[in-house]
Write a structure and sequence with these properties.
Rossmann fold, alpha/beta, 3-stranded antiparallel β-sheet, 3 helices, 157 residues, 17% helix
Protein backbone atom coordinates (compact mmCIF):
# COMPACT_ATOMS: atom_id res chain seq x y z
CA UNK A 1 0.00 0.00 0.00
CA UNK A 2 1.23 3.51 -0.77
CA UNK A 3 1.74 6.24 1.80
CA UNK A 4 -0.72 9.11 1.53
CA UNK A 5 0.61 12.52 0.52
CA UNK A 6 -1.64 14.32 3.02
CA UNK A 7 -2.98 13.31 6.40
CA UNK A 8 -5.95 11.05 5.83
CA UNK A 9 -8.26 10.15 8.72
CA UNK A 10 -10.86 7.39 8.76
CA UNK A 11 -13.57 7.58 11.42
CA UNK A 12 -16.99 5.89 11.46
CA UNK A 13 -16.86 5.17 7.73
CA UNK A 14 -15.97 8.75 6.75
CA UNK A 15 -12.65 9.65 5.15
CA UNK A 16 -11.26 13.10 5.98
CA UNK A 17 -8.41 14.51 3.90
CA UNK A 18 -6.69 17.33 5.73
CA UNK A 19 -5.68 20.41 3.71
CA UNK A 20 -2.05 21.16 3.05
CA UNK A 21 -0.52 23.72 5.38
CA UNK A 22 -0.15 26.90 3.37
CA UNK A 23 0.82 30.32 4.62
CA UNK A 24 -1.53 32.14 2.26
CA UNK A 25 -4.69 30.16 1.66
CA UNK A 26 -7.25 31.11 -0.94
CA UNK A 27 -10.65 32.15 0.45
CA UNK A 28 -12.66 29.14 1.59
CA UNK A 29 -9.68 26.81 1.81
CA UNK A 30 -8.84 25.13 5.07
CA UNK A 31 -11.62 22.69 5.89
CA UNK A 32 -10.97 19.00 5.56
CA UNK A 33 -12.53 17.17 2.63
CA UNK A 34 -15.13 14.70 3.92
CA UNK A 35 -15.73 11.60 1.79
CA UNK A 36 -18.40 9.05 2.66
CA UNK A 37 -17.34 5.95 0.67
CA UNK A 38 -20.81 4.52 0.03
CA UNK A 39 -21.91 7.90 -1.42
CA UNK A 40 -18.66 8.79 -3.20
CA UNK A 41 -17.13 7.65 -6.48
CA UNK A 42 -13.64 8.18 -7.78
CA UNK A 43 -13.94 8.90 -11.51
CA UNK A 44 -10.81 8.54 -13.64
CA UNK A 45 -11.38 10.32 -16.96
CA UNK A 46 -9.69 9.58 -20.32
CA UNK A 47 -6.42 8.17 -18.98
CA UNK A 48 -6.00 6.09 -22.12
CA UNK A 49 -2.90 5.16 -24.08
CA UNK A 50 -3.61 7.64 -26.87
CA UNK A 51 -3.90 10.55 -24.44
CA UNK A 52 -0.69 9.61 -22.62
CA UNK A 53 1.48 8.56 -25.57
CA UNK A 54 0.55 10.91 -28.44
CA UNK A 55 1.49 14.57 -28.72
CA UNK A 56 0.15 16.98 -27.55
CA UNK A 57 -1.32 14.91 -24.73
CA UNK A 58 1.83 13.26 -23.28
CA UNK A 59 1.84 15.64 -20.30
CA UNK A 60 -1.11 13.59 -18.98
CA UNK A 61 1.46 10.94 -17.99
CA UNK A 62 2.41 13.21 -15.08
CA UNK A 63 -0.88 12.54 -13.27
CA UNK A 64 -0.73 8.74 -13.51
CA UNK A 65 1.49 8.16 -10.42
CA UNK A 66 -0.84 10.27 -8.25
CA UNK A 67 -3.94 8.45 -9.44
CA UNK A 68 -2.24 5.08 -8.95
CA UNK A 69 -1.47 6.03 -5.33
CA UNK A 70 -5.09 7.05 -4.73
CA UNK A 71 -6.83 4.04 -6.33
CA UNK A 72 -5.89 1.45 -3.65
CA UNK A 73 -7.20 3.73 -0.87
CA UNK A 74 -10.47 4.39 -2.67
CA UNK A 75 -10.97 0.66 -3.33
CA UNK A 76 -10.00 -0.32 0.23
CA UNK A 77 -12.70 1.95 1.67
CA UNK A 78 -15.38 0.55 -0.63
CA UNK A 79 -15.60 3.63 -2.82
CA UNK A 80 -16.89 3.02 -6.33
CA UNK A 81 -14.09 3.43 -8.89
CA UNK A 82 -15.26 4.45 -12.36
CA UNK A 83 -13.04 4.62 -15.43
CA UNK A 84 -14.50 6.94 -18.05
CA UNK A 85 -13.03 6.45 -21.52
CA UNK A 86 -13.51 7.83 -25.02
CA UNK A 87 -14.11 5.19 -27.65
CA UNK A 88 -15.84 5.21 -31.04
CA UNK A 89 -17.16 2.98 -33.81
CA UNK A 90 -14.78 2.52 -36.77
CA UNK A 91 -16.92 4.73 -39.04
CA UNK A 92 -17.06 7.43 -36.31
CA UNK A 93 -20.84 7.71 -36.68
CA UNK A 94 -21.15 7.93 -32.89
CA UNK A 95 -18.70 10.87 -32.68
CA UNK A 96 -21.42 13.42 -33.37
CA UNK A 97 -22.63 15.16 -36.46
CA UNK A 98 -20.02 16.55 -38.89
CA UNK A 99 -18.86 19.93 -37.58
CA UNK A 100 -19.63 19.20 -33.91
CA UNK A 101 -16.85 19.75 -31.35
CA UNK A 102 -16.38 16.05 -30.68
CA UNK A 103 -16.37 15.15 -34.38
CA UNK A 104 -13.88 17.91 -35.20
CA UNK A 105 -11.49 16.68 -32.52
CA UNK A 106 -11.84 13.05 -33.59
CA UNK A 107 -11.30 13.99 -37.25
CA UNK A 108 -8.19 15.94 -36.23
CA UNK A 109 -6.49 13.16 -34.27
CA UNK A 110 -3.42 11.52 -35.73
CA UNK A 111 -4.63 8.56 -37.77
CA UNK A 112 -2.67 5.32 -37.77
CA UNK A 113 -1.08 3.98 -40.94
CA UNK A 114 -4.21 1.89 -41.47
CA UNK A 115 -6.35 5.02 -41.71
CA UNK A 116 -8.16 4.36 -38.44
CA UNK A 117 -8.86 6.78 -35.61
CA UNK A 118 -6.76 5.84 -32.55
CA UNK A 119 -9.82 5.79 -30.29
CA UNK A 120 -11.74 3.16 -32.21
CA UNK A 121 -13.37 0.51 -30.02
CA UNK A 122 -10.88 -2.21 -28.97
CA UNK A 123 -7.84 -0.52 -30.53
CA UNK A 124 -4.66 -0.65 -28.38
CA UNK A 125 -4.47 3.15 -28.11
CA UNK A 126 -8.03 3.31 -26.75
CA UNK A 127 -7.06 1.10 -23.77
CA UNK A 128 -6.83 2.51 -20.26
CA UNK A 129 -3.13 2.77 -19.32
CA UNK A 130 -1.73 -0.37 -17.69
CA UNK A 131 -0.78 1.44 -14.47
CA UNK A 132 -4.45 2.22 -13.84
CA UNK A 133 -5.99 -0.91 -15.32
CA UNK A 134 -9.52 -1.46 -14.04
CA UNK A 135 -10.05 -4.29 -11.59
CA UNK A 136 -12.99 -6.66 -12.10
CA UNK A 137 -15.19 -4.75 -9.64
CA UNK A 138 -14.41 -1.30 -11.12
CA UNK A 139 -16.93 0.25 -13.48
CA UNK A 140 -15.87 1.20 -17.03
CA UNK A 141 -18.08 3.69 -18.88
CA UNK A 142 -17.51 4.50 -22.54
CA UNK A 143 -18.30 8.01 -23.72
CA UNK A 144 -18.64 9.39 -27.24
CA UNK A 145 -18.73 13.09 -26.33
CA UNK A 146 -16.61 15.35 -24.14
CA UNK A 147 -19.14 14.99 -21.33
CA UNK A 148 -19.24 11.69 -19.51
CA UNK A 149 -22.92 12.24 -18.73
CA UNK A 150 -24.22 12.69 -22.29
CA UNK A 151 -25.51 9.41 -23.71
CA UNK A 152 -23.77 7.18 -21.14
CA UNK A 153 -24.79 5.10 -18.15
CA UNK A 154 -22.46 7.03 -15.80
CA UNK A 155 -25.34 7.88 -13.46
CA UNK A 156 -25.83 4.11 -12.96
CA UNK A 157 -22.20 3.56 -11.90
Amino acid sequence: MFEPIREVLFDNGVISVQPLALEQRPPGMGSSLQLVPDRTALIVVDIQRHFTEAPPFVAMRNIIPRISRLLPYARATGMTVIHLKSEFKPDMEDAGRPGSRTRQMMDGLAWSGEGQNPLVHDSPSAEIVAELAPLPFDVVVTKTRFSGFWGTNLHDG
